[in-house]
Amino acid sequence: MPDFFKGKPLPQSVFPPDTEEKKKQMGDFFAGPASPPDTAKKVPELVKKLGEKYTGVEKWGSLGMCWGGKIVSLTSQSGTPFSASAEVHPAMVDPNDAKGFKVPVCMLASGDENPEDVENFKKSLSVENHVETFGDQVHGWMAARANLKNERVKSEYERGYGVLLEFYHKHL
Known about the structure:
Blueprint: H1 20-31, H2 36-53, E1 61-66, H3 67-75, E2 84-90, H4 95-98, E3 105-110, H5 115-124, E4 129-134, H6 151-171
Helix pairs in contact: 2-3
């Protein structure tokens, strides 16, 4: 896993960003070491190096959760090294990003993502896609915030990963 943040991750104490100070810290982080445009520029070289090491790989797919979803959007444009991309509970959903997608995409949104942004993202896609909102799930339900002791969360967690597996099986 590459260290995109150069050894300076956002402290866990900032989560959830429920105060003005924490919101500012998060904003500063996304404008600094976690800048999506700056991070996206690093991805093609990373994939190139991985391809040199793993010469048997014929197709690459990407998966981004939260902030990583924005990176997926930015790296699925013209010149992408990926054959398929997926975003799970993505942050910073922008329908303008969807217009430039060049590969099939799967987006699994939570109930916390802006439904209008997700719908407009889907409408703006011109590539094959699967866009679905898991409306009763929280942002992070397929990652660190998954409460797998809750049967409903566990069921949707498993269903979400099943959707991803089917999507990648079809496109990679």
